[in-house]
Amino acid sequence: MKPVAIHKYYEDVWTDGWITHCEENSIPFEVINGYRTDVVPNLRKFSALFWNFNPWRYEDLLYARHILKTAEFMGLKVFPNENTAWHYDDKIAQKYILEAIGAPLAPTWVFYDRNEALGWLGRASFPLIGKLRRGAASHNVFLLESRSQAEAYCRKMFGRGIDPAPRLFSDMGVRMNKVKKLKSGKDVVKAFAKLAVKISSARHFSQVERGYALFQEFMPDNQHDVRIFVIGNKAFGFTRNMRKGDFRASGSGSFDYSRDRMPDETVRAAFEVSRKLGFQAMNYDFLRDQGGKHKLIEMSFGTFAKPTYDCPGYWDPRLKWHEGHHWPQAEIYKVVVEGGN
Ligand SMILES: Nc1ncnc2c1ncn2[C@@H]1O[C@H](COP(=O)(O)OP(=O)(O)O)[C@@H](O)[C@H]1O
Ligand SMILES: [Mg+2]
Prior knowledge:
Elements: E1 4-7, H1 13-24, E2 29-32, H2 39-43, E3 48-50, H3 58-62, H4 64-73, E4 77-79, H5 82-85, H6 91-100, E5 108-111, H7 114-121, E6 128-131, E7 141-144, H8 147-157, H9 172-180, H10 185-205, E8 213-217, E9 224-231, E10 234-241, E11 255-256, H11 264-277, E12 281-288, E13 294-300, H12 305-309, E14 313-315, E15 321-323, H13 328-337
Parallel strand pairs: 1-2, 1-3, 3-4
Antiparallel strand pairs: 5-8, 6-7, 6-8, 9-10, 9-12, 10-11, 12-13, 14-15
The chain binds adenosine-5'-diphosphate (ADP) and magnesium ion (MG).
């Protein structure tokens, strides 16, 4: 078998997981920089290509999919493939495709015309959620408590727009919690320096989001969200507690693996969406609506590996539970190269 290519362009523990998997299983592989201009002739020597995305890297958002689609066309086994990747970090794209298959998506509305959006707000009930199509860790999710707040958001989205990249001093509560886990002052300085570089690059290269308004029904009274990660025939799950005094969970870093927080309807819906849409791997975020039903609020193939590994087990497609820990990168490798896990 030709070797496997693992794209690595920046420090990324997720990508390291694929490297470890190949090393531990004596799988021939090479680490490549897929952004080199000679990537296409280079890809001929490989049987497969693995590539992780980072929502704050503009190259990954704008160009990675072009290279991956080209590799797919050249006959390589590719992760993420087109079905899995085309709607990455785009909640508008996700709205359309999830509606098409009748997934239990939280009611979501998008407008590309300011007057149409304002007219709709005149009939809407509040609070309402406003989102940017892009973003992670809750940075671009807003609670619109009144019509006037929603109209202001709308005017901004059809005016100067919103920069989707996070600010260095946003979400300090969560960042301080992470800092507390570091051992020495030197580690803290290093972590902040790394973060500053990442954020300033994201802010420099990100394109302002504007020209649309994206709204979602507000799901009240949730203490946590539910994340189900389907990789082939395995579904992993955990929940994330809301930040203190905040309605947002994603990015809080506060995980809870109690299975009674993850009802069967979430796991069933996640498997069904993955099957219908032909996903290799996908994370689904759910919240409970007012009637107590779990609704999807977004999906993404990318996530952190350790919280998934820490799941005490997984569900199979019949929703039978199996104990044990698994690295998601290894599971993805099996799905992509070996045809199943
Ligand atoms: N429709 C909604 N109603 C209530 N809270 C929401 C809604 N959508 C998102 N949230 C909260 O905001 C967090 C981030 O939202 P999400 O759409 O998953 O964006 P991100 O890409 O930042 O994770 C969620 O974990 C949830 O706590
Ligand atoms: Mg989320």
